[in-house]
Specification:
heterodimer, A: alpha/beta, Helicase, Ruva Protein, domain 3, Rossmann fold, 2 domains, 7-stranded mixed β-sheet, 11 strands, 40% helix, elongated, B: mainly alpha, Double Stranded RNA Binding Domain, 59% helix, 8% strand
């Protein structure tokens, strides 16, 4: 085992990966940066072009080039400013897909809980498609409100060949990022992203919505908008959806009561609101079926 | 069972004649006489012929099917088939999962990058830790695959998929060394014959 040590005369001392991890972990911890060790590992593995932080084990004796070291300084500094790692490295994984992330203007980073949403919707799609085989009616389609980086729609499309998705977001940066991700994943012909906003009486900016009826479900990330959007969806969405469609929402457990009340008020839904827990045991999702 | 109609009998007659034209060793006159005799018969004989025809058709179909199966297996079969019959199945009630959670009221508002999964199998006591990808869902999937592999090796030992693979690899490497040794042996012999170069 041969270790090559060298000191660059310009002052940037070439350092081994293992040392850098240790040094920066300490520095982040001193600055109370959350997830200090994971942060530096993700940043380093991204700079070195590795698929994941675990691969750093294999290169722990590698020494960074001056360019790589410069990039590390820039990125570590961003992390000291508490900028999320996903924005610093410009990408993240969701349901096995690698998606680009955008920081300015910022687009919502997909959360691991949302992967459970994808599984729930996926099961519903399978159920609807098995019914379809008997009647041979429609291909499943999905409408997403607040697509962000496009994570949910793209994950669903990668799992189901016949699915077609439409997704909207009020943030133009989100829509352009989602389109970019769909191009990278080769799913552009199965999904359409548009800039549109949910208003009291409908969706502004989406022309064709009134003429087509969507079969399946709305997937919403509760996110920063909170209850306002959820209320709008519950009150108006059944008008736009076919009979028997599903609405699946990702929410905060404190919202379940309100949701149950509104759904009863509207009388557009079949049966009870189905509340599901995420992998952390928190009530995170509600499923409603339209009349 | 269908009784052949006149046109079917006529077709049979014609195909027999065509067949007989190919024959090189038979007496053609005799053959054509026999064909003519054979294609005029009573109703009972017609019925018997239909049955025979049907049996032959069935036998032929079965032969074609078995040939197809043979071809399919030869073309699409992987070189080494593994015995998956003993591979264990994971029951949800036997599993316990643990992941790091974000702090905060709902837990979702906080962004976290650590998506490591610890999967415990209660009956056997096996523990798998997986943080191979940045996606929690993918790590959960991989953890289960690794657990099945480990459980398979624990329970089935020699019959596990991994053991089967190792045996095949050992056999291949033995065969390779045997071949390369034989090749060097032959080369030496040739060198001796031709004179040392």
């Amino acid at each position: 085992d041969v270790h090559i040590f060298y000191r660059n005369s310009s002052g940037t001392s070439g350092k081994k990966v293992a040392e850098l991890i240790q040094n920066w972990t300490n520095k982040f911890q001193k600055n109370k940066v959350p997830e200090a060790e994971d942060s530096i590992k993700h940043i380093l593995s991204s700079i070195l072009g590795l698929k994941n932080a675990t691969h750093l084990e294999y290169v722990k004796h590698q020494i960074l080039t001056p360019d790589e070291y410069q990039m590390l300084l820039v990125k570590a500094d961003l992390r000291l400013k508490r900028i999320p790692v996903q924005y610093i490295i410009g990408e993240w994984e969701f349901c096995g897909l690698t998606l680009k992330m955008r920081h300015s203007p910022s687009v919502f980073i997909p959360r691991p809980e949302t992967e459970d949403l994808v599984f729930i919707v996926s099961d519903i799609i399978v159920e609807l498609m098995s019914c379809n085989k008997r009647d041979k009616v429609y291909n499943p389609s999905c409408f997403e409100v607040g697509c962000g980086s496009g994570a949910i729609s793209l994950a669903l499309l990668s799992k189901h060949e016949e699915l077609r998705c439409t997704a909207i977001d009020a943030n133009p940066a989100a829509v352009s990022l989602a389109r970019l991700n769909s191009e990278i994943l080769g799913l552009t012909d199965k999904v359409s992203f548009s800039i549109a906003k949910l208003e009291e009486d409908g969706i502004v900016g989406l022309n064709f919505l009134n003429s087509t009826k969507y079969e399946d479900h709305l997937a919403l990330d509760g996110g920063p908008d909170g209850t306002r959007v959820i209320k709008q969806i519950l009150r108006h969405a059944p008008k736009w959806l076919r009979e028997g469609s599903y609405i699946v929402l990702e929410i905060d457990p404190r919202q379940t009561k309100t949701i149950k009340l509104i759904s009863e008020e509207c009388a557009s839904y079949v049966g009870e609101v189905d509340v599901r827990k995420d992998c952390f045991g928190v009530e995170r999702f509600v499923i409603l079926r339209c009349k | 069972m269908n009784i052949p109609n006149k046109s079917q009998i006529f077709q049979l007659f014609r195909s027999c004649i065509r067949y007989s034209d190919q024959l090189k060793l038979s007496d053609k006159k005799l053959v054509s006489r026999r064909i003519k005799e054979g294609t005029k018969f009573s109703l009972q004989e017609k019925v018997a012929l239909a049955e025979k025809y049907q049996n032959m058709a069935q036998k032929f179909t079965m032969l074609v099917q078995s040939l197809e199966r043979l071809v399919y297996h030869t073309v699409y079969r992987s070189k080494h088939t593994f015995d998956h019959s003993k591979v264990p199945i994971l029951l949800p009630e036997d599993l316990e999962e643990e992941f790091t959670r974000g702090s905060g009221p709902g837990g979702q508002a906080v962004n976290k990058t650590n998506n490591a999964v610890i999967l415990r199998h209660k009956p056997s006591g096996l523990i798998v830790k997986c943080h191979q990808t940045r996606s929690l869902a993918k790590n959960r999937e991989l953890a289960r695959e690794i657990l099945i592999q480990k459980l398979d090796q624990l329970i089935n030992g020699e019959d596990s998929i991994e053991a089967q693979k190792t045996r095949i690899l050992e056999r291949k490497s033995k065969e390779n060394t045997r071949r390369s040794e034989k090749l060097t042996e032959l080369k030496e012999k040739w060198k001796k014959r031709e004179g040392i170069e």
